[in-house]
Specification:
Growth Hormone, Chain: A
Length: 196
């Protein structure tokens, strides 16, 4: 108990900053990828000659995947640990965002975004859990707020990227711009994020 009290009363150290930077980077790219779907979908509708109603079931697929992922990774993280679950969620999300960029019809795209949604549903709660478990109690709320700010920042940067890429209707490039760094991020997370 004494050790836990010391950790809670300590000041954030380099360890905390590096940990937060990695978790926040995952949050940033997940936000970027999530928003990329929103920006890409109108272009996809035009290119594939789809009815506007298609946005409904694509959006539902993402949200249902999110719901499923939240339930699944909540159970999984208690069984195999926060860190491995976090890594699986990030890879799952990044991989299927990347796959969605390679699809050729709305069914393939919808399946890909559903599976990406599962990863997103795992990553978001786990990012807050990891930050909450390691940050000193007096600074925990501040870092959780920073984590939320990073999500909004990812959305803003995605908007700027969409402005550049979607002028030429290159929605596939926009999706890959977020997917590839998400997968690369697995290396630093494996190294710098400890098991809680």
């Amino acid at each position: 108990m004494y050790l836990l009290e010391r950790l809670d009363n300590s000041l954030p150290s380099r360890f905390h900053h590096v940990l937060f930077a990695n978790v926040a980077a995952a949050q940033f790219f997940d936000s970027f990828n999530f928003q990329a779907f929103t920006f890409a979908l109108p272009i996809i509708l035009v290119q594939w000659d789809l009815p506007i109603a298609a946005t409904g079931y694509v959006g539902t697929a993402v949200q249902f995947g999110f719901l499923s992922g939240t339930l699944l990774f909540g159970i999984l993280s208690d069984r195999i640990g926060r860190k491995p679950s976090f890594q699986i969620a990030i890879v799952l999300f990044g991989l299927f965002v990347g796959i969605s960029a390679l699809t050729s019809n709305i069914l393939e795209f919808t399946i890909a975004v559903f599976l990406a949604g599962i990863g997103l549903g795992g990553e978001i709660p786990l990012s807050y859990t990891i930050v909450g478990e390691f940050m000193p109690s007096k600074h925990r709320g501040r870092y959780q707020a920073f984590n939320s700010i990073v999500w909004q920042l990812g959305a803003v940067i995605c908007g700027l990227a969409a402005y550049v890429t979607l002028g030429s209707s290159n929605w596939r490039l926009l999706l890959l711009m977020g997917a590839v760094p998400s997968i690369i991020l697995l290396g630093p997370i494996r190294r710098y994020v400890p098991e809680s």
